[in-house]
Amino acid sequence: MRVIALDIGDKRIGVAYADTKTKVSNPVKVVSIDELKEVIYDYEPDMLLSGLPLGLNGEETEQTKHVRDIANSIANKYNLKLEFIDERLSSKEAKNILRAQGLSEREMKGKVDAIAASLFLETWIEQLQ
């Protein structure tokens, strides 16, 4: 199954891709909602996986509702199955990975969200086993 993971933010969306046969997740890029159409047509996913930004206490927030609404809208628009996964701390972990590679905060811009999407997509794939 081909899966696109979305790390939905206020202005941009981090995108990652995986095929559950290979069990390898790859960051794709960070796009605007208008540019997402191109990625979906290029990768032809069977489903979308959206990160769900829960509060540190595990409860839903206003941002959680916002992300749910956008993800549902995208899934409906492209007639794709949609699942959600807890994305808490994925952006922090993505920044740590990029820092370890020697990137500055400025160089990280535009990469963090795609790496975060890749991280929670990997977690989701591991849960399938």
How are the SSEs placed, and which strands pair?
Layout: E1 2-8, E2 13-19, E3 24-31, H1 36-43, E4 47-52, H2 62-77, E5 81-86, H3 90-100, H4 105-108, H5 112-128
Parallel strand pairs: 1-4, 4-5
Antiparallel strand pairs: 1-2, 2-3
Question: Would you mind describing this structure in some detail?
Answer:
This protein is α/β, with parallel strands linked by helices. The chain has five helices and five strands. The chain has helices at residues 36-43, 62-77, 90-100, 105-108, 112-128; strands at residues 2-8, 13-19, 24-31, 47-52, 81-86. The chain has a five-stranded mixed sheet with strand order 3-2-1-4-5, sandwiched between helices. α3 (90-100) crosses α5. It is globular and about 40 Å long.
The strands making up the biggest β-sheet line up spatially as: 3-2-1-4-5
| Major sheet size, sense and barrel closure | 5 strands, mixed
Low-confidence stretches: none
The termini sit apart by 14 Å
Helix proportion range: 40-55%
Q: What is the CA-atom radius of gyration, in angstroms?
A: 14 Å
Bulk shape: globular
Class by SSE composition? alpha/beta
What is the beta-strand fraction? 25-35%
Q: How many H/I helices?
A: 5
Mean pLDDT: 91
What is the helix/strand order? EEEHEHEHHH
Strand tally is: 5
Features:
129 residues; alpha/beta; five-stranded mixed beta sheet; 43% helix; 26% strand
What is the gist of this entry?
With 129 residues, this protein is of the alpha/beta class. It contains five helices and five strands, in the order βββαβαβααα.
